[in-house]
Write a structure and sequence with these properties.
- It contains 8 helices and 7 strands.
- It is of the alpha/beta class.
- It has a 7-stranded parallel β-sheet with strand order 1-7-6-5-2-3-4, with helices on both faces.
- α6 runs parallel beside α8.
- The model has no long low-confidence stretch (mean pLDDT 93).
Length: 244
């Protein structure tokens, strides 16, 4: 039934994905959204997968690949880590990714990023990393990162496609459109570098306040909505050297 629904969905609202080549003469920054244990590592918390999930596995693998290229080239990377204080729930979700816990840390395959000089790590306590980057004095750590690095293109990967990734992309595009993020021009969402969770109707019916969340459908919808806001959706990403 779910497979049939996905096929119908993709037919009724098709998503155009393109191959993206990142040129060395265009300053590009990589944003990694919540690729942490609490969302990606089996059994790591209330919102972690209970078993191996192919979409999440691929997301981690692709994020590692692009992160290594960015670090080799010493290009800027900004990593959001979902982190919540005890007792501050994020309705409708149960307690997750508590500050100081294993849940709120990068997955093992990406922990090496913490030692890289070109990486900025930002812990956030809300869905939207753009909002989560705001400081009490009104400044915004993410906005400053874009401007200080003169970033023209953003490549975005992470989880969840239809929640934190989408919220961040929408806010970033709105800020760009208002002229708050110059010189930023393009926001690219890497589809294979994104993933979301799977919570079928059968499980949702047995959980109070839970919403059904079929993975393939919601992943497609997250990408579709991001494209509708002005993002480019990349089916694959390559890196192009300068022509001499």
């Amino acid at each position: 039934m779910v497979i049939h629904a996905v096929e119908v969905l993709k037919k009724e609202i098709p998503l155009e994905e393109v191959s993206v080549c990142i040129h060395e003469d265009v300053i590009t920054g990589l944003v990694l959204v919540d690729i942490i244990n609490g969302f990606c590592t089996i059994g790591a918390g209330n919102l972690a997968p209970r078993e191996t999930n192919n979409q999440i596995v691929e997301m981690i693998d692709e994020s590692v690949k692009v992160s290594r290229v960015f670090c080799e080239k010493k290009w800027p990377i900004f990593a959001f880590l979902d982190t919540h204080e005890p007792g501050k729930l994020e309705h409708p979700y149960p307690s997750h990714c508590l500050a100081g816990s294993h849940e709120s840390n990068l997955v093992p395959a990406l922990q090496w990023l913490e030692k890289e000089p070109n990486v900025t790590i930002r812990r956030k306590d809300c869905y939207d990393g753009f909002i989560g980057s705001m400081e009490e004095d009104g400044s915004n750590v993410f906005v400053d990162w874009v401007k200080n690095n003169n970033i023209q293109t953003l490549l975005v990967a992470g989880v969840c496609t239809d929640i934190c990734v989408l919220d961040f992309v929408c806010s970033t595009l709105s800020a760009r459109n208002r002229g708050f993020l110059a010189p930023l021009k393009d926001v690219v969402v890497y589809s294979r570098g994104c993933a979301t969770f799977d919570f079928p109707a059968s499980a949702a019916r047995e959980t109070k306040d839970a919403l059904t969340h079929p993975q393939e459908i919601m992943h497609h919808m997250g990408l579709y909505m991001a494209k509708g806001r002005g993002a480019t959706i990349a089916k694959d990403v390559s890196f192009c050297a300068l022509n001499k």
